[in-house]
Structures are given as structure tokens and as C-alpha cells.
Amino acid sequence: MKQIGSLILAAVLGSIFTLVAYNWLHNERTFNGLTSNQPPVTQVAYIVNDKGETVPLDFTTTAEKVTKAVVHIKSTQKESARNDQYLYLDPFREFFGGPQRPSTPNRPSQATGSGVIINKDGYIVTNNHVVSNADIVEVTLFDNRSFKAEVIGTDPDTDLAVLKIKEVNLPFLSFVDSDKARVGEWVLAVGNPFNLNSTVTAGIISAKGRNIGILNSENRNNEFGSTAIESFIQTDAAINPGNSGGALVDLNGGLLGINTAIASPTGAYSGYGFAVPSDIVKKIVEDLIEYGVVQRGWLGVSIVSVNNDVAKEYELTVLEGAYISAFAKKSSAKEAGLKEGDVVVKIDETNIKSSTSLIEYIGRKRPGDKVNVTVNRKGKEVTYTVLLNARDGKSSVVKAEEVGGYASLGLEVEDIEAKLLKKLEIAQGVRISKLGNGRLARDTDIREGFIITHVNDVPVKSVKEFNEIMKKKKSGELVTLSGVYEDFPREFIYAIRL
Predict the structure, then answer these.
(1) 69 contacts 126 by C-beta, under 8 angstroms
(2) pLDDT in tens, 72-106
(3) Thinking of the domain 404-497, which architecture would CATH place it in?
(4) What are the tens digits of pLDDT across the range 143-176?
(5) Helix crossing, 278-290 with 355-363: angle to 10°?
(6) Closest listed residue to residue 235, CA positions, set 196, 263, 198, 268
(7) Which residues have a catalytic role annotated?
(8) Domain spans of the chain?
(9) Which pTM was predicted?
(10) Second-level CATH architecture of 57-291
């Protein structure tokens, strides 16, 4: 009987406890009704402001400021006399909506991308591959006004281009020091992916100084190799086709870089975006506006990044830096006293950890600039002052008046040996050694290797003569190039208007 009474008492007490607990929980919150008297739990990122206060991370003010200075770009290429120009491998075409090979020769091709207004007078920076070979470039502002743009200059070595529209008092973004940007810092990417205007995405800087080997793959020569400058800022802010040429900014709206490429197995965003750092962009923009062509200083060295394997192979005492393996014929570094086997570890006050960082730093310099280069030579550090030369060995910059229609042709020529002239039964000529993205490639079917014997019926005997003749030509003037190909020795004549 006592056991039955104990069980009844336990049941009563349990019931009372259950009712009390239910009433307490019901008054505090209703789970199934999705209501609660407690503060909602949300995941919010916080940052420390200038006053040292911890505040929620907010992108709205920055996004509102930046979107007004980012434009949509549409470039159109009309029918070209050279229809095989689409056959080369274009690493940007798949990812950023570059020109596609037309199904018929008469159909124009179009490319779309983004651009950033960099001053109130209508100067815009974008990627070279967005406007490359374009006959018409149209810029649409954030308020839907459209303008025809002039291409001020391009630089395939950094994949940058400068445009100009006839409009003033425009909103613009100011450059900030990309050297001071840190891995892990919040950034925004702004552009027009998939033709969706004024799209803002957020992420962080994932890495700096990335070399992904996509620029200027066709611009090579035996002495220097690729002339590309790759030292990208890597970000996980979403970048997709159409973002190319858009802005990468810090949380104050300062321009940290120009979005240029993505690494993706599908052609769409997969977590890896790359931007040209603002310190490089600023220098390229200044050169193109002032001179019409990029002024690039050269050390005249062949280098390789030092790592554990390289250090073991060459018995080095350092694990970082740029190892000098050879010198060019006209090397300002060799003239200053540097030697093969030296490891460049510092230039001025900047530590050099790889070949990429050396190329980036020198890429910001012009012919005639002096740099202090510190090398590790067999365990000891030695510093030399190097006067940078241009690629042709001169220390002076190219004057603005020297850059006219000739530069727009996009070619380089070289002297040819007398033996070949005799074989082809011609008296003189210079050979096209490189055919870049210029009017000749776009508007004619001329090929590299073409031997120019006459310019407008004037004989050409050397590179010096050719340059002197062409520099006297004015924009808009019709020029005829006569000559032969080594493998097809009959005369060809190409006419081009500068």
C-alpha cells in the first residue's frame, strides 16, 4: 500500500512540474509560431572603426558611391579584311565576353565589359581585351546616358586601356595605395556581369602578387621572353563575365585595382578573381594620357623566383628573391655591376620575394629613373644604383610628339641579313618581327615575317630609315607598304590609313 501511495505522489508531483514548465516556456516564447521575446540571433560581421569602436560591417555607403563611377562598355568590331584574326587563342574571350568568331564575314562582333571613371573630365580605365580591335566603343553611365568613347591608348602587357568621353563633372574614383592593402581585408567588386548593370559583390583579398600566366602570350622575343607584367590581387569577391575592367575597391571606396580575370573550370565564378593593382594601373594611365604609349624601364635581366629547389641547385643562402640567370644585350643592370648568379632581395625600400615582385616594381618605373638594387651574392648583400634604360637601351622617354599614327599600326621591324636579300633578289628591306593588336592586324591580312621594301614608293634599307619615314607620317595619312614574303616571293602591297 505504501508503494502505491509513493507512486501516486510521484505522478502528481511530475504532473505539477510539467504544467509549471509548460506555462513558463509558453509565456517566454512560442517555438512553432516562430515568435520569441528574446533578441533574434543573426550572423553579423564586425569591424573596428577609426575611433577604435566595434561596429557592424556595412557596405551600403561604399556601394552607393562606387556604382556611380563604374560604367558599362560595349565595343563593336566591323567587318575586317582579315577574317583569320579570331583563330588565335584568346584567354579572355571565354570568361569575359570578348569578340567571338562571326558566323559570316559580314557580321560585326561585339564585346562587353566594365570601366571605371578616374577623373571628372571623362577619362575611363578598362581592360585592353574589352576594347581590343574595336571600331566603335560605347560607354553607358550609371544614369543610362551613352557616349561614343575615344581610345586614348592601350597596353597589352598589363591588359589595360584608357578611354575618353566628351563629358565633364563626372563622379569618379581615386586611386589608393595597393601596396598597403592586406590579405584578409574586405573589398568590393563592382561591374556589369552578364549585362546586369551596377552589380556589387563583397569578399576579401585572398592573396597578392599572383602570376597566372594569361597576359601577352603572343608578345615574345628571343631576348626578353614575355613582356607581360602580372602581379594580380586575388579576391574571392564574385567576378563573372562582364566584370572585366570594373573596380575593386576598399571599404572607403578607394580604387585598389581593375578586375581582369577569373580562374574557373566553367567560365563562371568559382572563388578566384584577379585584379591589376592600382599602383600599376595609375602608372600605365599616366603614361598613356601623357605620352600615348607606356614608358617602361628595363633592368635587362632574365630572372627566376628563388625557392627551396632553386636554392639547392645554385647553392644559394637565401630562399626568397629573384635569381639572375642571364643578361640582355643592352642591360642597365649589368652596366651597374650586377652579375649572373646574384639574387635580387631588395629594390629601394621594397623587399623582393620573387620574380613577380621584381617585375611589378620595375614596371612602375620609366626610362631614366634610378633604383637601388640590393643583391645577395654568395651570402653577402651588395647594393648598386641602376639607371634604368628603355628596351632599346636609351635612358630617355618617348616624347609625346613622337607618338602618332605610326604607333597605332602595332608592329615592330628588324634589319635582315644581306644573304637573305640576295636570295630573294631584292635590294633592301626590313622584316616585321612582331605584329601586335594594331590597325595592320585588324584591317589587312599582313603576316609577321613580311619584308617591307618600300613605304609609299620610298626604298627602306634599315630599321632606322623605316622609323624616320614613319614618324613623319601624320594621323589620317594613307600609307602603302610594299614588299615580299620569304616563303612566297612575289610583291604584295598593303594600304593603311593612319
Answers:
(1) no
(2) 999 987 654 443 333 333 444 434 444 444 444 55
(3) Roll (2.30)
(4) 999 999 998 888 888 999 999 999 999 999 999 9
(5) 30
(6) 263
(7) 129, 159, 244
(8) 2-33, 57-291, 301-387, 404-497
(9) 0.71
(10) Beta Barrel (2.40)
